[in-house]
Specification:
Order of helices and strands: HEHHEEHHEEEEEHHEEHHEEEE
Structural class: alpha+beta
Distance between the termini: 51 Å
Shape: globular
Radius of gyration: 20 Å
Helix content: 25-40%
Largest sheet: 14 strands, mixed
Number of helices: 9
């Protein structure tokens, strides 16, 4: 009963919070993030000394650039389950400040899906599937004028930021995943039938593909079998492609171009408006003509597939190739936005 009460606590708080090619790539710089700095200080102020020792690490700690979205027994930082109720509320306010409303809604629902997986997988999954195993870590000192970082991470969620004071310098890797991608059977009190946390990311991807003519599709589809996972999962900074596979933006129909822009905006809009604007400005400056769209695998919903969109300043991927907990094929989706000019504010390789 206590376990269920804790799960319900997280969910209720969440609901309340919700109501180039020769081109110089522009990095995300000098974007305001006053609310994040404020909420980070407030959350840290709720922790006791022992908790602060777990929650705060030096900025140059190797763990800062270590990330992953798979289920793990332990991670850097301190999880929601080891916080008091006021501390959890402050942590979720920090998460809310770091994201847009839509981004926070996705993050909240991803946490709740851990409760769904616990039920779907049955006895023995309690430790593995826990909606309070989401860890918060601050790297450095938010009160200083030096760089500091923030990591919020657990199964199917990895959010990583670098700030200088109240200005955000980088906001990647940005990872959201969902299992099941579509809830096939309602789980009372947890997830309604038909819930699709990342449904628009899937639908718009298919819409881009459907807007291509036969010749364009033959260029965009680069493999009959999709990769098993997004590229460079858990790697601090992925290698950049020397030549972008797939169909170039300039070779798309106007309808496909419009849908691709809508899809990229959807990925970007998980972040606050200032970061969205900076991301789109960077794409504008680098040139939309430098963007390529590629597809692998099945071309119908329910078939394993993956797509990738990349330009001089970003890499976006969606991968839905794994079965869900009930064995339904291609019902377990991973999505990621990477900074092609340097995740974690690292120098580009």
């Amino acid at each position: 009963m206590a376990c269920c009460a804790r799960i319900k606590s997280v969910w209720i708080v969440g609901l309340v919070m919700i109501v180039g090619s020769g081109t110089m790539a522009m990095r995300l710089r000098d974007v305001p993030a006053v609310a994040v700095e404020t909420m980070a200080k407030q959350w840290l102020g709720t922790l006791d000394e022992g908790q602060r020792q777990r929650a705060v690490m030096p900025f140059d700690e190797d763990a800062r650039v270590g990330w992953h979205f798979i289920p793990k027994d332990d991670r850097k930082g301190i999880p929601l389950k080891d916080m008091t109720e006021p501390q959890r509320t402050a942590a979720l306010r920090l998460l809310r400040a770091a994201l847009s409303e839509s981004g926070y809604s996705k993050a909240s629902q991803i946490m709740v899906l851990e409760s769904a997986l616990r039920i779907l997988e049955g006895p023995g999954s309690e430790q593995r599937r826990d909606p309070e195993k989401y860890y918060f870590t601050v790297f450095g000192d938010p009160t200083s004028d030096q760089r500091w970082g923030l990591s919020i991470e657990g199964h199917h969620l990895s959010l990583n930021f670098v700030f200088r004071g109240d200005r955000v310098l980088d906001s990647t890797p940005q990872f959201f995943g969902a299992n099941p991608a579509t809830v096939r059977t309602a789980i009372p009190g947890i997830a309604p039938e038909g819930l699709r946390v990342l449904g628009r990311e899937e639908d718009l991807g298919f819409a881009v593909l459907a807007a291509l003519d036969e010749q364009q599709r033959s260029k965009a589809i680069i493999a009959s079998e999709p990769p098993k996972e997004v590229a460079a999962a858990g790697v601090a900074q992925p290698e950049l492609s020397k030549s972008k596979a797939g169909l170039g933006f300039g070779s798309m129909s106007s309808d496909a171009q419009a849908k691709l822009k809508e899809l990229l905006l959807l990925f970007a809009e998980a972040m606050p408006a200032e970061i969205v604007a900076a991301r789109i400005q960077a794409i504008d400056q680098a040139g939309w003509q430098e963007i390529a769209f590629s597809w692998s695998g099945g071309t119908q919903p329910g078939e394993p597939y993956a797509y990738r969109i990349e330009g001089p300043t970003f890499q976006v991927e969606a991968n839905n190739t794994q079965p869900d907990a009930a064995g339904n094929p291609a019902n377990h989706i991973h999505t990621v936005w990477r900074d092609a000019t340097g995740d974690f504010d690292l120098p580009i390789r």
